Amino acid sequence: MTTSKHLQNENQTNTTELLDNILNSSTEYGIIATDLNDKIVFWNAGAEIIYGYTKDEMVDKQTPQILHVTNPHSNDILLHNDTNYNSRITDYEMKAIRKDGTILPVSVTVTPRFASPGIICGFLIIVKDITNLKVEEKYRDILIEVAHLVNSPISINEMCNGIISAISTILEIPVVFICLLDKRNNNFYVEHQIGLNSEYKKHHCSYTYDDKFVYGNVFDCFLTYSQFTINYGKLTGHAICEFIQDVDLPESDSSIIHIPLLADIALMGILHIVIPSSRKNLLLTETQVLSIIANEISAGIQRKRLEEEIKQYAYDLERLVQERTDQLRVKDAQLVQSGKLATLGEMATGIAHEINQPLGGISLIVQGLQRAKNFGKLNDDILDEKLKSVIEQIDRINKIITHLRTFARQPKEAHQEISVSVPLLDVFKLIGQQLKNKNITIETFISEEIPTVLADHNKLEQVFLNILSNARDALDDFEKKVRRYREASNPPEWVKSWQKKIVISSYEKDKYVYVEIEDTGGGIKKEHINKIFEPFFTTKEVGKGTGLGLSISYGIIKEFGGTISVESEEMLGSRFTIRLPSHDTSPNPVLGRYEH
Ligand code: ADP
To answer: Which position has the higher pLDDT, 120 or 215?
Structure first.
């Protein structure tokens, strides 16, 4: 029994010693124990490394010998004897002030020590150097910030300024600047900077080595342009020195780091960093991060330049399309106008007829008046009546001329709400007499309930005029053929009943307004039907046809969102159908009817 108790005691002593050894020699964690009077009772190797004080310097001393940079939210824990700590474990992130005055980020865990259950005899403080953790955090922060800036829809300027400001604040670097290559003169210019004075624009480096002899002091910059270079202590004499804002930055004891910004293998710029030499060890570990940042900057600049180029290209293209469209619109208007003039030319004879009629009337009236005067039968009543008739005839001529003037005028661009019946009937003011003279029967079936369309009166009139003129020509041509058939010994049955006829109908169906113009002419040959809307296609003899009428009509109807189509059968005739989107659905009273 005594032996086993002895053995038990020995085992316990061994275990306590082992534990003491482990705690004492742990270098990963600083382990400190205090009593209730803040006196240090335990100080291990880890604590020695972190705070720089040896065990002998600290054990039996009061904790005020070691300090932390006080943070506003908690007092220094090693000066603290608060019962708040009694029952729980508390974690802190603090900055320890080492014996040599340097500062170290640490995580601190404080737990109460118990002499027996419920009786606190002091505190156990476990401290860990978290410098690496902090550095990693810093790297993570800056890489996230850089990735964010590179991928944001901002300009190259905003991106570069954002990145150098992040490098400066997160990595605590006093001077950061980016030089970009200006391809026009092969020089690098400082484009973005932090920590340089207002004169910095004067600084530039050339891409070529030759400049070394001219500007000896900038040699380092381009000698090392294509590789990551740290020039320890070489800031003195570097051309950038005269542009550094902080005059206190030790020139002789500062390093300048050049990190190339590469586009494939070509150098597009250099990221420069100036730091005091005291930071150089830390910066060595940062080189990798700086290289990643430089790569991101290069990729960002390239991508954004490409985006800007594409944007510019799209803008130029849009402008070009707009210019071309405007040119085409002018050309189109010119074409419409020349087509119209051609039509007017073709119509000249017809118009002569239109005007001749009232002129003939006037001549007859005047002759009648002369005769009455000669016979002494002219009195005031007869004179009044005859003069009224003359005025009526003159009015008629006036109307024709006025209409011709409106027709020949360039139309306004705006689309108006109109009824197709108006231009349809107006056409007959120009061509009605001609059709009558040519013995062409006109039949109109214009719906009484037809909605309006969005179009231009003059342009629609031109379309109807083109189609009607073509129908007139087709009927004239076919008439000659029919005459030959009739003169033959055994004419076919249809020839006897053939009539020169144009049927015009308008109606509304499924929210579209339709105008059909059908003739009993010779029709269109199958091999021509697909070509008739092409500009300059004509089967008419020189001087009679321009081949513009239908192509212009096609353009006009398309402009109003409509379609124009043709059905034709040789020897039977043709039907042109114009379809325009209805503008409103309210019925429009029929505006007139053409008869002759
Ligand atoms: P143009 O009348 O000056 O020849 P268009 O473009 O108006 O020019 O017409 C092109 C061609 O379409 C005409 O030359 C003719 O061959 C054919 N065409 C048009 N309308 C008819 C029609 N109603 N009947 C037969 N052929 C037609």
So the answer is: 120
Q: How confident is the model at residue 216 (pLDDT cuts 50, 70, 90)?
A: very low
Answer whether 545 contacts ligand 1 (Cβ < 6 A): yes
Is the model more confident about 150 or about 9? 150
471 CB within 6 A, ligand 1 = yes
At residue 320, the pLDDT reads 87
pLDDT tens for each residue of 419-472: 999 999 988 888 888 898 899 999 999 877 789 999 988 889 989 999 999 999
CB atoms within 10 A of CB 281: 9
Distance 49 CA to ligand 1 centre (A): 104
- Between CA 179 and CA 298 the distance in angstroms is 12
| CB 97 within 8 Å of CB 67 | yes
Q: What are phi and psi of 385, to 5 degrees?
A: -60, -45
Q: How confident is the model at residue 228 (pLDDT cuts 50, 70, 90)?
A: low
Among candidates 192, 170, 189, 169, which has minimal Cα distance to 181?
189
Atom of ligand 1 nearest to the CA of 551: 6
Is the CB of 524 inside a 6 Å radius of any atom of ligand 1?
yes
CA of 409 to the centre of ligand 1 (A): 24
Q: Is the dihedral of CA 228, 234, 240, 246 positive or negative?
A: positive
- Whose Cα sits closest to atom 2 in ligand 1? 545
The average pLDDT across 496-516 equals 94
Confidence class for position 74, pLDDT limits 50, 70, 90: very low
219 or 30: which carries more pLDDT confidence?
A: 30
Task: Please give the Cα distance from 192 to 261 (Å, whole number).
Answer: 14
Q: How far apart are CA 439 and CA 37, in angstroms?
A: 131
204 sits in which H/E element = strand 204-206
- Give the C-alpha separation, 206 to 241, whole Å: 17
Best probe residue, ligand 1, of 467, 520, 538, 557 (max atoms within 8 Å of C-beta) = 538
- Candidates 551, 563, 488, 479; CA nearest to 521 is 479
Q: Which two tokens stand for residue 501?
A: 């006829």
Between residues 346 and 393, which one has the greater pLDDT?
393
Radius of gyration of the chain (CA): 51
Q: Is the CB of 537 under 6 A from ligand 1?
A: yes
What pLDDT does 217 receive? 43
Q: How far apart are CA 175 and CA 168, in angstroms?
A: 7
| Residue ranges of domains in the chain, CATH in brackets | 2-129 (3.30.450.20), 135-305 (3.30.450.40), 415-596 (3.30.565.10)
What pTM was computed for the model? 0.49
What pLDDT score was predicted for residue 411? 58
C-beta of residue 590 within 8 angstroms of C-beta of residue 506? no
Q: Which residues of 543-552 are buried (b: 16+ CB within 10 A; e: fewer)?
A: eebbbbbbbb
Identify the CA nearest to 63 among candidates 48, 47, 80. Answer: 80
Residue type, 465: L
Question: Ligand 1 in contact with 181 (CB < 6 A)?
Answer: no
Question: Which ligand 1 atom lies nearest to the CA of residue 537?
Answer: 10
The response to whether residue 475 sits with its C-beta less than 6 Å from ligand 1 reads: no
